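Lab notebook page, bench 4
Experiment: in silico fold of construct C2
Operator: M.H.
Input chain length: 440 residues
Purpose: comparison with the prior construct
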Amino acid sequence: MKLSRGIALSLLLLDFGVIVSVALAYPVDAAAVTLRVGEQGRDLAATLAISQAGDRVEVPAGTWRGPVTIHKTITLIGTGGVIDGGGHGTTITVAAPGVVLENLRVQGSGQSLSGLTPDACIRVLKTASQSVVRRCELERCTFGIWVHETDGVRLESNRVIGTELGHRSNRGNGIHLFDASHLVVSGNHVIGGRDGIYVSATEDSLIADNLFERTRYGVHYMFSYRNTLRGNRSLANGSGYAIMSSHHLKVTGNLAEGNSHHGLLFRDVQYSQISQNILRNNGEGLFFYSSTENVIVDNHVLNNAVGVKIWAGSKRNEVRRNRFVGNRRQVFYISTEDLVWAQQGEGNRWGDYLGWDADQDGIGERPYRVDSFQATLIYRFPAAALLLRSPSLELLTHLESRLALVRVPTVIDKRPLIRAAGRAQSLVESLGNAPERRRP
């Protein structure tokens, strides 16, 4: 008997006055069964061939050969076995809607990085909407999981171990999202490879509570709109989060720590909210490049080599209630005119602010002005870095505030905070400790 899961089946319990409705999404065989690879089929491909929609296919202990393609709405679940692609093509291709891959160990994809279908351990096709990849372990993959033009896919609690050989740009991504929508990517752990999660032309999706280590970028957005990036951890990567050519994003509650270049980089980003992130012990905490009309609020930028680097016309952003403390250089700014923050309302907390608060309103009585003379000099004449601690350069820097002749455009916070805002302080307490790192 075939039931259409597109029809809601209702059971009326008159004695209790209760209606129970079951909404089903895809055609399923009412006599669905559990098949076991090696028993009902001699190998994985043979077992998939005899399966029917709704069946559960178990992968027991042993190594089972791929590549395989799933054309039916089944659950493929690991019970101790490994699916090995043998170094050829994509190990598992999901072509049917509503497929569930769970507790699988998948390895050994091909090595192609180019073309329309580069090799991956798991590839989810356009026809595989609403599929789920959950608690899978992937290694020796060129790309870990590739979601291609698909809607409604969930990637949950997977672990992807990418290669750390060769240059980062010559590796595949742990999770690659291309032209997809309404995705949920949560609780995954990506180690090595190129980017932890690469997001291209993907809309209305959530990336939350993932952990990235030893990648180029923990998360890398390109041309993606109306996404949420929340509660992720990016540790010891090249850059924590790189957001480029995207708009209407919510980037909130993420941690970037110990990344060699940037904690959070946003380039050509508009109409986005960047809030409640902790960026500490990175090369640069924040890097704005040609980004406008964004709200940047309640972030902690702590103990970085450079707190914030601002470049190429990043204007008309609302920057307030952020905490810049302990950075070796608070701001690196190059422009032809001053950038003024907080004309009214609240400004930001600066760890090296030397002003006072006579009326006890929590806002300094004089503006905070970033010393940018050294930054401008080194930008124009890189060899001047050799003079950083010299008496002559220290004297010129001291005179900058007194002589218009040596004054250069800088960042000015009109209403600096004397103490951290309560919401910002609670953020450090809730997100301050990075999770324990899991080793491959």
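Observations: The first strand starts at residue 2 and ends at 3. Residues 46-431 form a domain with the Pectate Lyase C-like fold (CATH 2.160.20.10).
Next step: discuss at group meeting.
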